[in-house]
Amino acid sequence: MKFNHAESFFSAAQQGQPLVIAGPCSAETEEQVLQTARALKQQNIHLFRAGIWKPRTRPGSFEGVGSQGLAWLNRVKRELGMKVSTEVATARHVEEALKQEIDVLWIGARTTVNPFAVQEIADALQGVHVPVMVKNPVNPDLALWIGAIERIYHAGVTDLVAIHRGFSSYQKTKYRNVPVWQIPIELKARYQSLPLIVDPSHIGGRRELIFPVSQKALDLGYDGVMIETHPTPDLALSDAAQQVTPARLAEILGQLQVRKTRY
Ligand code: PEP
Ligand code: MN
Description:
Elements: H1 9-14, E1 19-23, H2 30-41, E2 47-49, H3 68-80, E3 84-87, H4 91-99, E4 104-107, H5 109-112, H6 115-125, E5 132-135, H7 142-154, E6 160-164, H8 182-190, E7 196-198, H9 200-204, H10 210-219, E8 224-228, H11 246-255
Parallel strand pairs: 1-2, 1-8, 2-3, 3-4, 4-5, 5-6, 6-7, 7-8
Helix pairs in contact: 2-3, 4-6, 6-7
Bound molecules: phosphoenolpyruvate and manganese (II) ion (MN).
Manganese (II) ion binds near residues 25, 202, 228, 238 and 239.
EC number: 5.4.99.5
Keywords: Transferase
GO molecular function, one term: transferase activity
Protein backbone atom coordinates (compact mmCIF):
# COMPACT_ATOMS: atom_id res chain seq x y z
CA MET A 1 0.00 0.00 0.00
CA LYS A 2 1.19 3.49 -0.79
CA PHE A 3 -0.43 6.22 1.20
CA ASN A 4 -0.82 9.71 -0.17
CA HIS A 5 -1.36 12.73 2.01
CA ALA A 6 -0.44 15.33 -0.57
CA GLU A 7 -3.73 17.19 -0.32
CA SER A 8 -4.55 16.03 3.15
CA PHE A 9 -5.30 17.87 6.36
CA PHE A 10 -2.45 15.76 7.52
CA SER A 11 0.49 17.08 5.48
CA ALA A 12 -0.77 20.65 5.59
CA ALA A 13 -1.04 20.54 9.35
CA GLN A 14 2.10 18.70 10.21
CA GLN A 15 5.17 20.64 9.08
CA GLY A 16 7.51 18.76 11.39
CA GLN A 17 5.27 19.21 14.41
CA PRO A 18 2.96 16.51 15.76
CA LEU A 19 -0.56 16.65 14.45
CA VAL A 20 -3.07 17.55 17.17
CA ILE A 21 -6.64 16.30 17.08
CA ALA A 22 -8.87 17.40 19.96
CA GLY A 23 -12.50 17.73 20.92
CA PRO A 24 -15.04 16.02 23.12
CA CYS A 25 -15.59 12.29 23.28
CA SER A 26 -19.22 13.01 22.39
CA ALA A 27 -21.06 15.95 20.94
CA GLU A 28 -23.63 16.61 23.68
CA THR A 29 -25.20 19.95 22.87
CA GLU A 30 -24.64 22.54 20.16
CA GLU A 31 -23.32 24.95 22.78
CA GLN A 32 -20.84 22.43 24.23
CA VAL A 33 -19.51 21.67 20.74
CA LEU A 34 -19.15 25.35 19.80
CA GLN A 35 -17.67 26.31 23.16
CA THR A 36 -15.04 23.56 22.98
CA ALA A 37 -14.22 24.35 19.36
CA ARG A 38 -13.79 28.08 20.07
CA ALA A 39 -11.30 27.31 22.83
CA LEU A 40 -9.42 24.86 20.62
CA LYS A 41 -9.39 27.23 17.68
CA GLN A 42 -7.25 29.58 19.76
CA GLN A 43 -4.74 26.77 20.21
CA ASN A 44 -4.51 26.16 16.47
CA ILE A 45 -5.28 22.50 16.81
CA HIS A 46 -5.34 20.80 13.42
CA LEU A 47 -8.54 18.80 13.55
CA PHE A 48 -11.65 18.94 15.74
CA ARG A 49 -13.19 15.65 16.82
CA ALA A 50 -16.57 14.77 18.31
CA GLY A 51 -18.49 11.49 18.39
CA ILE A 52 -22.08 11.67 17.15
CA TRP A 53 -22.91 7.96 17.10
CA LYS A 54 -21.35 6.43 20.19
CA PRO A 55 -20.68 2.70 20.36
CA ARG A 56 -21.21 1.84 24.02
CA THR A 57 -20.21 -1.47 25.50
CA ARG A 58 -23.54 -1.98 27.23
CA PRO A 59 -26.97 -0.53 26.49
CA GLY A 60 -28.40 2.16 28.67
CA SER A 61 -25.50 4.62 28.42
CA PHE A 62 -25.54 7.79 26.35
CA GLU A 63 -25.40 6.64 22.72
CA GLY A 64 -24.76 9.98 21.08
CA VAL A 65 -26.99 12.71 19.71
CA GLY A 66 -27.08 11.14 16.23
CA SER A 67 -27.32 12.97 12.92
CA GLN A 68 -28.36 16.32 14.39
CA GLY A 69 -24.82 16.64 15.77
CA LEU A 70 -23.42 16.70 12.23
CA ALA A 71 -24.98 20.12 11.73
CA TRP A 72 -23.14 21.34 14.85
CA LEU A 73 -19.84 20.10 13.41
CA ASN A 74 -20.69 21.77 10.15
CA ARG A 75 -21.17 25.02 12.08
CA VAL A 76 -17.71 24.61 13.64
CA LYS A 77 -16.35 24.22 10.14
CA ARG A 78 -18.18 27.21 8.65
CA GLU A 79 -17.98 29.65 11.54
CA LEU A 80 -14.54 28.84 12.90
CA GLY A 81 -12.86 27.54 9.76
CA MET A 82 -11.71 24.37 11.53
CA LYS A 83 -11.49 20.93 9.99
CA VAL A 84 -13.90 18.52 11.67
CA SER A 85 -14.08 14.76 12.13
CA THR A 86 -16.42 12.13 13.51
CA GLU A 87 -16.68 8.36 13.91
CA VAL A 88 -18.57 6.30 11.34
CA ALA A 89 -19.64 2.72 11.92
CA THR A 90 -22.08 2.06 9.06
CA ALA A 91 -22.57 3.02 5.41
CA ARG A 92 -25.42 5.31 6.48
CA HIS A 93 -23.10 7.16 8.84
CA VAL A 94 -20.66 7.69 5.98
CA GLU A 95 -23.37 9.05 3.70
CA GLU A 96 -24.79 11.38 6.33
CA ALA A 97 -21.37 12.65 7.39
CA LEU A 98 -20.39 13.39 3.80
CA LYS A 99 -23.67 15.22 3.18
CA GLN A 100 -22.74 17.55 6.05
CA GLU A 101 -19.23 17.98 4.65
CA ILE A 102 -17.37 16.39 7.56
CA ASP A 103 -13.69 16.68 6.55
CA VAL A 104 -12.26 13.51 8.06
CA LEU A 105 -13.91 10.25 9.16
CA TRP A 106 -12.63 7.70 11.63
CA ILE A 107 -13.41 4.05 12.22
CA GLY A 108 -13.66 3.12 15.89
CA ALA A 109 -12.04 0.19 17.68
CA ARG A 110 -15.31 -1.74 17.92
CA THR A 111 -15.83 -1.46 14.18
CA THR A 112 -12.27 -2.30 13.08
CA VAL A 113 -12.77 -5.78 14.58
CA ASN A 114 -15.60 -6.54 12.17
CA PRO A 115 -14.63 -7.14 8.53
CA PHE A 116 -18.27 -7.02 7.36
CA ALA A 117 -18.79 -3.61 8.96
CA VAL A 118 -15.49 -2.28 7.61
CA GLN A 119 -16.31 -3.57 4.12
CA GLU A 120 -19.69 -1.87 4.23
CA ILE A 121 -17.96 1.40 5.10
CA ALA A 122 -15.37 0.82 2.37
CA ASP A 123 -18.14 0.29 -0.19
CA ALA A 124 -19.76 3.57 0.85
CA LEU A 125 -16.39 5.31 0.37
CA GLN A 126 -15.88 4.14 -3.22
CA GLY A 127 -15.05 7.13 -5.38
CA VAL A 128 -15.11 9.57 -2.47
CA HIS A 129 -12.17 11.76 -1.52
CA VAL A 130 -12.15 11.94 2.24
CA PRO A 131 -9.32 11.11 4.63
CA VAL A 132 -10.04 8.19 6.95
CA MET A 133 -8.42 7.37 10.29
CA VAL A 134 -8.55 3.73 11.37
CA LYS A 135 -8.31 2.95 15.07
CA ASN A 136 -6.80 -0.34 16.14
CA PRO A 137 -9.26 -3.15 16.91
CA VAL A 138 -10.18 -3.60 20.58
CA ASN A 139 -8.19 -6.83 20.70
CA PRO A 140 -4.42 -6.95 20.15
CA ASP A 141 -4.54 -8.24 16.58
CA LEU A 142 -2.29 -6.51 14.08
CA ALA A 143 -3.68 -8.46 11.09
CA LEU A 144 -7.20 -7.24 11.84
CA TRP A 145 -5.96 -3.64 11.98
CA ILE A 146 -4.09 -4.03 8.69
CA GLY A 147 -7.09 -5.78 7.15
CA ALA A 148 -9.36 -2.83 7.96
CA ILE A 149 -6.82 -0.40 6.51
CA GLU A 150 -6.57 -2.55 3.36
CA ARG A 151 -10.34 -2.65 2.90
CA ILE A 152 -10.56 1.15 3.00
CA TYR A 153 -7.46 1.48 0.82
CA HIS A 154 -8.90 -0.87 -1.80
CA ALA A 155 -11.96 1.37 -1.99
CA GLY A 156 -9.59 4.03 -3.36
CA VAL A 157 -8.91 5.96 -0.15
CA THR A 158 -5.15 6.50 0.08
CA ASP A 159 -5.32 9.38 2.55
CA LEU A 160 -5.28 7.07 5.56
CA VAL A 161 -4.07 7.50 9.13
CA ALA A 162 -3.76 4.83 11.87
CA ILE A 163 -4.79 5.62 15.44
CA HIS A 164 -3.40 3.62 18.36
CA ARG A 165 -5.97 3.60 21.19
CA GLY A 166 -4.76 0.58 23.13
CA PHE A 167 -6.20 -2.91 23.55
CA SER A 168 -8.73 -4.47 25.90
CA SER A 169 -7.42 -6.75 28.59
CA TYR A 170 -9.16 -8.73 31.29
CA GLN A 171 -6.19 -8.10 33.53
CA LYS A 172 -6.40 -5.07 35.78
CA THR A 173 -3.64 -2.63 34.80
CA LYS A 174 -3.10 1.07 35.28
CA TYR A 175 -4.41 1.57 31.75
CA ARG A 176 -7.97 1.40 30.52
CA ASN A 177 -6.62 -0.20 27.33
CA VAL A 178 -3.10 -1.60 27.44
CA PRO A 179 -0.84 0.03 24.88
CA VAL A 180 1.11 -3.07 23.68
CA TRP A 181 3.50 -0.69 21.88
CA GLN A 182 5.01 -3.47 19.73
CA ILE A 183 1.83 -3.67 17.65
CA PRO A 184 1.74 -0.08 16.34
CA ILE A 185 5.53 -0.12 16.01
CA GLU A 186 5.27 -3.16 13.78
CA LEU A 187 2.48 -1.53 11.78
CA LYS A 188 4.62 1.56 11.22
CA ALA A 189 7.69 -0.50 10.33
CA ARG A 190 5.66 -2.19 7.64
CA TYR A 191 3.94 0.91 6.27
CA GLN A 192 6.28 3.83 6.66
CA SER A 193 4.11 6.30 4.75
CA LEU A 194 1.13 5.57 7.02
CA PRO A 195 0.89 8.28 9.70
CA LEU A 196 0.45 6.96 13.22
CA ILE A 197 -1.40 8.94 15.88
CA VAL A 198 -1.73 8.07 19.57
CA ASP A 199 -5.02 8.34 21.46
CA PRO A 200 -3.77 8.64 25.06
CA SER A 201 -7.30 9.33 26.32
CA HIS A 202 -8.59 5.84 25.52
CA ILE A 203 -5.30 4.14 26.38
CA GLY A 204 -5.09 5.77 29.81
CA GLY A 205 -8.75 6.10 30.69
CA ARG A 206 -7.83 8.83 33.15
CA ARG A 207 -6.51 12.29 32.58
CA GLU A 208 -3.27 11.89 34.56
CA LEU A 209 -2.02 9.41 31.98
CA ILE A 210 -2.51 11.66 28.94
CA PHE A 211 0.83 13.39 29.26
CA PRO A 212 3.06 10.34 29.90
CA VAL A 213 1.37 8.23 27.22
CA SER A 214 1.61 11.07 24.66
CA GLN A 215 5.27 11.67 25.48
CA LYS A 216 6.09 7.99 25.15
CA ALA A 217 4.41 7.94 21.73
CA LEU A 218 6.29 11.03 20.55
CA ASP A 219 9.53 9.46 21.79
CA LEU A 220 8.73 6.49 19.58
CA GLY A 221 8.26 8.83 16.63
CA TYR A 222 4.47 8.96 16.40
CA ASP A 223 3.07 11.61 14.10
CA GLY A 224 0.49 13.10 16.42
CA VAL A 225 -2.02 12.87 19.25
CA MET A 226 -5.79 12.69 19.59
CA ILE A 227 -6.88 14.03 22.99
CA GLU A 228 -10.45 14.17 24.28
CA THR A 229 -11.28 17.68 25.44
CA HIS A 230 -14.43 18.91 27.19
CA PRO A 231 -15.30 22.25 28.82
CA THR A 232 -16.44 20.47 32.00
CA PRO A 233 -14.90 16.99 31.86
CA ASP A 234 -16.44 15.68 35.08
CA LEU A 235 -19.90 16.38 33.68
CA ALA A 236 -19.24 14.68 30.33
CA LEU A 237 -21.86 12.17 29.20
CA SER A 238 -19.16 9.71 28.10
CA ASP A 239 -15.54 9.12 29.13
CA ALA A 240 -15.63 11.75 31.89
CA ALA A 241 -12.50 10.52 33.71
CA GLN A 242 -10.24 10.83 30.69
CA GLN A 243 -11.26 14.19 29.23
CA VAL A 244 -9.36 17.40 29.90
CA THR A 245 -10.34 21.05 29.64
CA PRO A 246 -8.98 23.07 26.71
CA ALA A 247 -6.77 24.92 29.24
CA ARG A 248 -5.27 21.67 30.48
CA LEU A 249 -4.78 20.53 26.89
CA ALA A 250 -2.74 23.67 26.22
CA GLU A 251 -0.48 22.84 29.19
CA ILE A 252 -0.03 19.25 28.06
CA LEU A 253 0.82 20.32 24.51
CA GLY A 254 3.22 22.93 25.87
CA GLN A 255 5.09 20.34 27.91
CA LEU A 256 5.42 17.64 25.26
CA GLN A 257 8.90 17.34 23.80
CA VAL A 258 9.30 16.46 20.16
CA ARG A 259 12.40 14.44 19.38
CA LYS A 260 14.30 15.23 16.21
CA THR A 261 14.93 11.64 15.24
CA ARG A 262 11.80 9.73 14.44
CA TYR A 263 11.53 5.94 14.15
C1 PEP B 1 -13.92 7.58 20.84
O1 PEP B 1 -12.97 8.01 20.14
O2 PEP B 1 -14.62 8.29 21.59
C2 PEP B 1 -14.15 6.11 20.86
C3 PEP B 1 -15.34 5.59 21.04
O3 PEP B 1 -13.01 5.45 20.72
P1 PEP B 1 -12.63 3.92 20.55
O4 PEP B 1 -13.25 3.48 19.26
O5 PEP B 1 -11.15 4.00 20.48
O6 PEP B 1 -13.14 3.19 21.76
MN1 MN C 1 -14.28 8.48 24.08
